Amino acid sequence: MSESKVIYDKNTLEFVTVALEYCALVENTSTYTLFTFVDKAIKIMPLLYLKATLLPYLYEPEDTDYQDCFITEETYEVIRLRIAELMGKEDSFLDTFQTDMKFSDTPIAATISENMADIYQDLGNFAALFRRENEDVMTEALYFCEVNFRLYWGQKLLNVMKALHSIRYNDDFNNEEE
């Protein structure tokens, strides 16, 4: 499959759709209750992981001039803080999948808000580049998003899913919603 065809592939378009849904979720955090946010996240994030694993393989682009960052530090921090505020005491979790963990006797704490903001930063930059409708830029954005999924945010997504699952299916949490 030619590289220009890859960006119009069914799996690519489905990934873009789910990535945009994820971005919309975190951008609108303040409009949700904790229960609704967790419930939506626990449904979108597995889809995001699945769709990322189905992306077609791309070779590294020759020209990498298009790697702009649209998600600024300020935007990242606003997203992180909104999620942290909504999550409250539920924001922290023990991250057992850190490479440092095997050298430590002390558990390593992580936060749902930071991990979700990290994922958002990558997907937001990807979506902004993809919207340019320039095939070279779209191909490069897809390539780097898939590489970052494998090396970086895919594991963060799985870690957050474990924490969100624990929250969502906790009897006390479900009783509070009722």
Molecular structure report:
By secondary structure, the chain is mainly α. The chain is 66% helix and 3% strand. It has seven helices and two strands. It has helices at residues 3-6, 10-27, 34-53, 73-87, 112-130, 135-168, 171-177, and strands at residues 92-94, 109-111. The chain has a two-stranded antiparallel sheet with strand order 1-2. Helix 2 runs antiparallel to helix 3 (34-53), helix 3 packs across helix 6 (135-168) and helix 4 (73-87) packs across helix 5 (112-130).
Topology:
Blueprint: H1 3-6, H2 10-27, H3 34-53, H4 73-87, E1 92-94, E2 109-111, H5 112-130, H6 135-168, H7 171-177
Antiparallel strand pairs: 1-2
Helix pairs in contact: 2-3, 2-5, 3-6, 4-5, 5-6
Give the ordered list of helices and strands.
HHHHEEHHH
Mean pLDDT: 90
The total beta strand count reads 2
Number of helix segments? Answer: 7
Gross morphology: globular
Say what oligomer this is.
single chain
Helix content: 55-70%
| Gap from first CA to last CA | 51 Å
Integer-rounded radius of gyration:
17 Å
